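Schema walkthrough. Field components (list of strings):
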Amino acid sequence: VRATARRPAHLAARTLAAALIVAIEVAGVMLMLDQFGSIGGWRPAEVVVLFGLGFAGQGLALVFGDTLEASKVSELVRRGTFDQVLTRPASPLGWVVASYVDTRFVGRHLAGVATVVWAADRAGVAWTPGRAGLAALAVASAATIIFGVLMAAAGFTFVTVQGSEAVNVLIYGGQYVASYPMQIYGSALRFLFTWLVPLGLAIYVPALGVLGRPGPPGLPAWLAWLTAPVALAFVAVGGLAWRAGIRHYVGTGS
Amino acid sequence: VRAYLALLGAGFQRQNTYRLALVAGLTTNAFFGVVRTAIFFALYRERDQVAGLDVADALTYVWVLEGLFAVVWAPWFWELAEAIRSGEFIAELLRPGDPYLRLAAFDLGRTLSVVATRTVPTLTVAALVLPLRLPGTLGGLALLAVSLVLAAVVSFQLRFLFASAAFWTPDYRSMFLFAFPVLWLASGFVVPVDFFPEPAAGAGQLEPVDPAGDGAGAGGHRPVGRPHGRRPARLGGGAVAGRSPGAGRGQPPAGGPWWLSTPASTCGWPPPRCGPPPAGPPTWPPAPWRPR
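Field assembly_structure (string):
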């Protein structure tokens, strides 16, 4: 962070630009949804709450996890830098994560939080400690899950060396999917993003509580509190994949 | 000319070399296409036509956009900007010919490869599975090709401009970061330009095409200031086919295929599969109200 903070104007510009992207996307979606009136019975402002939660969670995860992205880990392995990392008396994961913190994603996170507050106000949400807690839980769970995806992908990159951009489908695509009410999707997409990569579970279900919506029939109210353990379990799997990847790492032989 | 042709071939080959990247790109396009298709099916469940677009138009928009994504989004401009910043670009000036034309030839090769491996397969599969509105006549196809070329040309110019920012400032990335969101929205990548409010829609259509990925702009040149009664959509050459709304084949009922979207009511898709009409007396028009 300090390296970037040397140039405050640069830092501010990047943060602002990242927030601008979120604002533009939200504005565009708002325009479209206003033309239609509703989607799956949800009003535009309620959908935008989902968008905000998704952006906030994604931004938070990428603040820490951006260095785990496939292309960057691939670079680390190919240049042999990772050999040095392993000899250091610190956890490799901690080192990689701390090596560079991209402030762009702070902007993304903050813009997401601002979007949630603004859209919840428009949707007429009366904030209570419980609802605020649910929203925070959604953001934290989503961030945890995305971080888990990043760790697993990084572990995978140790094996393949060549980074694959397909992970972005889960990170950016998952956030996109979870930005709309889950009931509009077919069974395959819903299953994938509720149980395999539980981003939908982490964002949609707590959002039901925040917005005070009943949700689809058969959905128990306590499911919202299940998101935290599910997210933790997911990140644990991601951690295992990361460790397996490191164990597989043999260096470049240079 | 031969040198430029060789560069064209090199661009083509470079793009073809990375098979894994091709698979990843196709997967990403397919995934986002499927998700956006599901979203539009859900949106159109309650309406038939919004801002002059119906389901088929919206789906055409989605898949043309996914097909063109790789044409207009080519991250090589970062390499060029980095080369300018580090000074490596000097070597380019020493080579014979014009640097701009060499770059253009190289990018043309890349574009041809992308059209063959990404645009055509994506659109073909989508058109087979979904009710897209693609031009069927020879003239329509020609216009679609023209709009494709325009998309490629304009996006190349924008890439070149973004990279050229490095001639003036080392902080070229910030320039891009601020210009990009505006182009992103105005190009219709986030949502179709037709959904903008009236004055903004006119402004959006002034913008020829976008840098980052959309066919809507390409096919969607329209005179600004036309009467309010909107013509049918011209997404990626949609109107080129010469269909007026409602003419031609019947619209598939909103709802989408079962694997994509939850079924609407009694009707499924593809069209002939319609359930029996709901039993009981029709509720519309309602019986006249009588005072008791």
